[in-house]
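Late entry, written up from scratch paper. The run itself happened at the end of the previous shift, but nothing got recorded in the book at the time, so transcribing now.
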Amino acid sequence: MNKLKLIEWDKKYIWHPFTQMKLWLEEEPTIFIEGKDCFLKDIDGKWYLDGVSSLWVNIHGHRRPEIDEALKAQIDKIAHSTLLGASNETSIILAKKLGDLLSKKLPWGEPLTKIFYSDNGSTAVEIAMKIAYQFWLNQGIKDKDTFISLKEGYHGDTIGAVSVGGIELFHQIYKPLLNKSIQAPAPYCYRCELNLNYPSCRLACLSEMEKILTQNHERIIAVIVEPIVQCAGGIIVWPQDYLKGLRKLCNKYNILLIADEVATGFGRTGKMFACEHEKVTPDIICLSKGITNGYLPLAVTVTNEKIFNAFLGELEERKTFYHGHSYTGNPLACAAAIANLEIFEKDKTVEKLSKKIELLRKKLKEISKLNHVGEIRQKGMIAGIEIVKDKLTKETFPYKEQTGWKIVKSARKYGVWLRPLGDIIVIMPPLVISEKNLERLLDVIKLCIIEITS
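Output as recorded:
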């Protein structure tokens, strides 16, 4: 297809997400036409190393043969059928696989075995919130109407998900539309609002959380968090034992704990699920992104039997969970997810990460010495480099300078594709990236930080 015509149509018809379209219309866009392994090819034939897994969804590389074949086989059978009043083979098989996997990996509480399908992280969170609310209501408890979430948290862009979001740049404008929620301090120790450092930050944040629970537990539906790493908030890596402490508080005050593992699930943190790091089993878990290796939209909200059983009753009791989507349990998406999970098992994807995680840590340590690198945060194969104007005072560059964007645009000259979070450079490559390409990725980032900040 003619490049100029595609650019014309893009600018005429597409409204891009999280994009100031005035600037977009003034620039020449990159148009991808092909992917292979950990690389993307643009319409000019240039290849880029995919440093952010095409927005955190790609685990096993682009055009993975096993997933390609699974989709071809499924489309020869059926592309879609409803789960409303019926079922389908692939959704059943995937539910069994996910239930078994979660029970094995998160065995420290009620097993998470009840799978509710949807199609993206936001809807998975919306479902979790509605289930949590109705769980109490079905038991005759009518006073619970509020969620607790964390500042700098991100759970999606639909209204319910935004209600528990804590990133002012994204969420402030929609406050008049939102549901009730209380925000607790995030354990963002580098910029702790309580002016504390590790481990005092963790203890103080847990103390603040307990104050909120003490004063409000009778009306709290659930606490919802991104466990271990708050990704969109700036790759905020929690101090050790914060999640474990949070689980204890939820138990103490009889509050549900919802783990939004949309970004952290499927090996990103060095374990299959982030909650494994502190041996915590949530009451509800939300999964999406890497579940299909980025092939098709799919999400799941998974609960335990106790929560599920609260929805059982006679028709006249009105305990049914009245929620669903046209594409719930889509067979094509489920087939991709099944193949993706089988690759995890066959290739031992997570088990083989240790050398790459250590290489990433080593290269990040070198980058941390640069004059304008304030803090580097890493958990497994997720990392964030916070760029600052002054290393000593932690002063940031002016927002209008768009320093982070300049760095990632510079990286494109060297064939590396990145997307920042403000002035935080995000590193989240496919888990199958080779050590050689991982080293190249970090070397280019270091070079571009020096180029732009000096």
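The CA atoms of residues 162 and 174 lie 8 Å apart.
(Scratch paper discarded after transcription.)
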